[in-house]
Amino acid sequence: MQIVNSVSALHAQVKAWRQQKQTIALVPTMGNLHQGHISLVKHAKSVADKVIVSIFVNPLQFDDKDDLSAYPKTLDADSQQLGANNCDLLFTPTVEEMYPHGMTAQTTVTVPGMDDKLCGQNRPGHFDGVATVVTKLFNMVQADIAVFGEKDYQQLLLIKKMVADLNLAIEIAGGPTFREPNGLAMSSRNQYLTEQQREQAAELHRTLLSIQKQIVQGERDYALLQQQALERLQDSGFTPEYVDIRCADNLELAKEGDRELRILAAARLGKARLIDNVACNLA
């Protein structure tokens, strides 16, 4: 596996692969990799000849400076995992390489309709930062396909909309959420949890599954289900931000007659902000 940290070195290798008629998949990450990330790398390898993984903790998407400084950085361990799982190139740019004129002078990308709800309400500017860095990575790598995890479902839909709106020549694929044995969605931020909190945190997924079951059984008072879920999480020691039942394709609030739904939640537990979602298809 090659490791490069400059755009020029990245371009040189991509050009060489293109001359050999190789297809390329990109898996953008912020590092501190877990099995969920590795599953995306494996999926990328199954659909392309070459796999590029980027590791870049993007300051532009952090609304909390303390969260940015505390974000775990484990490059050596990440490199070992990627090398053992058929990654062909690891791209590890610095902030200066990504934003050579500074972040305040950086042209930014906004995806209207996706950035002002759910996590967008509680993290102002976050999705502009995501859309901007992902657009830059797409332009740098010029991959055929990029793979993102479904755990960050709002981010996945935002990127799909951005690609469609800007006519970007790249396919976006989603990979399923990987979970701990107790159901907790794997996340780099799970390491902020104590062992006791890790068990407690599984209640987030159980709450979403409870809503899913009630909807499948015929309950259609979505406002009531959401309120009950918020109370359940609060009683379990969380500080919930939202529990919403939304249309799966555009994240608009679900209403009677909608068939493909997504149930999404965000809540704080101890030092960690946790997000999760489950599908609920009534078709």
Low-confidence stretches: none
The class by helix and strand makeup works out as alpha/beta
Annotation, overall tally of beta strands? 9
CATH class of the largest domain: Alpha Beta
Write out the CATH superfamily name of the largest domain: HUPs
- C-alpha geometry: globular
Task: Please report which band the strand proportion falls in: under 5%, 5-15%, 15-25%, 25-35%, 35-45% or over 45%.
Answer: 15-25%
Radius of gyration over all CA atoms, rounded = 19 Å
SSE run: EHEHEHHEHHHEHEHHHEEE
- DSSP helix count? 11
**CATH topology of the largest domain, what is it called?**
Rossmann fold
Q: Could you tell me the mean pLDDT?
A: 96
Please summarize what this structure is.
With 283 residues, the protein is an alpha/beta fold.
Report on this model:
Helices cover 40% and strands 20% of the residues. The protein has helices at 7-19, 35-47, 65-70, 75-83, 95-98, 119-122, 126-141, 153-165, 195-201, 203-216, 222-235; strands at 2-4, 24-29, 50-55, 89-91, 145-149, 171-175, 239-247, 260-269, 272-281. The chain has 2 domains: 2-175, HUPs (Rossmann fold), CATH 3.40.50.620; 188-277, 2-Layer Sandwich (Pantoate--beta-alanine Ligase, Chain: A,domain 2). Strands 1-4-3-2-5-6 form a 6-stranded parallel beta sheet, with helices on both faces. A 3-stranded antiparallel beta sheet has the order 7-8-9. With 283 residues, it is α/β, with parallel strands linked by helices. Helix 7 packs across helix 8 (153-165). Strand 2, helix 2 (35-47) and strand 3 (50-55) form a beta-alpha-beta unit. The protein contains 11 helices and 9 strands.
